[in-house]
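dumping the sequnces here before i forget
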Amino acid sequence: MAVLVIADHDNVTLKDNTHKTVTAALKLSSEVDVLVAGAAVDAVAADAAKIAGVRTVLTAQSPALGQQIAEAVTAAVSPLASGYEAILIPATAAGKNFAPRLAALLDVAPISEIIEVVSADTFVRPIYAGNALETIQSTDAKKVITVRPTAFAAAADGGSATIEAVDAGAGAPHTRFVSDELAQSDRPELGAAKIVVSGGRALGSAEEFHRVIEPLADKLGAAVGASRAAVDAGYAPNDYQVGQTGKVVAPALYLAIGISGAIQHLAGMKDSKIIAAINKDPDAPIFQVADFGLVADYKTAVPELMEALAAAGK
Amino acid sequence: MKVLVPVKRVIDYNVKVRVKADQTGVDLANVKMAMNPFCEIAVEEAVRLKERGVATEVVVVSIGPLQAQDTLRTALALGADRGLVLQTDSDVQPLETAKLLKAVVEAEKPDLVLMGKQAIDGDNNAVGQMLAALLGWPQATYASKLVVEGGKALVTREVDGGLQTLELDLPAVVTADLRLNEPRYASLPNIMKAKKKPIEIKPAADFGVDIAGRLTVLKVTEPPKRAAGIKVETAADLVAHLKTAGVL
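..and the predicted 3d for all of it:
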């Protein structure tokens, strides 16, 4: 049984999510191929070929694939599907965009965002934003699965797969790319960051959020997150939102500043390895999940934290 | 232009979900139900299209038990024109939901299907994309801005690391993300008016779709609990603990 992994990349760099999805794929089969669908992705394919355990790297190239337009990606992948019993896709915004479309074209029930491979047909996935885990068995002969990257370790380099070009498909005749507006930030992406510093409603204003949270994040090389309350109040942009209706993150360290810890926020970060919280309310629910809690006003605690980090060589 | 908005009745997002002791699912008995938040955003956007004179009719459809009409009533109070329930007591999975919606689209012939990006119960984030595939329509998921003009939809989407803008030929499927709009509160007069708007109820079985899902739920369990940790006294203590934990 061969498995196809669709690579996560931006046409320039192969993303670590690919390596993590390969780990999930290797639990299903020893015959793992990787498809790099994009525009001018020879360098990305060369990097994918280095992942240990990968048999063949396939490349499909066209402008529409470079823009990751769902119709184009599914048109390139579906002709390949007959050679595979499972297609695994990193559960990124791009992956989640085309995976169900591919599944429907193949008349397969998609399996979304698995966090564990139990057997070749049985998987664990979070439902209700991680407040419950569902173990599901698929009766489909072919499977289309998205993989939550934070739940799997990255496959190491050390392989030397062959690289083959495949047909790019028919593109996206009814969709035209207009523009990209990618955040110009040196900070890591929220979903992939090792450390996340998040601010809540206690910050009180967008200026304060900017003044307090961002320098702390930069000191730690962290991504910036926010609670829904902070986003709703306009203190932080929507794409910072961590929680049931925002992004689900699982960094090594989640540092919550002035966040009370509403259920829907906890749902988005409680799989973090270490949670540290600063809140002046000793009864804030965030302390029920925090490994380390500091009951203090952020106004004094964050400057002290900056000093302590500086003293510790950060 | 007609807009079809599929909506789902789910546990209210403020309710703490409890897993049943027999591991067959989550406890839905006596729990507050509400319209899925992303569906509400889709309804709001459709109503705004109508208010701007772009859409002429907003039809809302829901698949589920008879109580799904309460959810549709909420959508009608927000400004939708009429509702349709595809009644079933089965838990319909995403692929079968998309197939049922395809049948509804073929009957209603909307120019645009506007729906939430995902339901907060199953968290599949799949139906919109699958409906587009089954219809052979273009799709734009995770919309944070939508402009409909001259048979085209200009959609700004939330993607990894920023925004992407696509132009789609209509008919198309667009799924709503949080930033698309902030849904209004239904006013009392509109809630009263909504009671008079038509809701048609049809058995889901009448749509010629095999709604038995391909995925069997073997069990539903509680996620591993996080134990509360310790309180530290100072920021310096916090840094020391984080260093010991190896995360700094």
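Residues 2-244 of chain B form a domain with the Rossmann fold fold (CATH 3.40.50.620).
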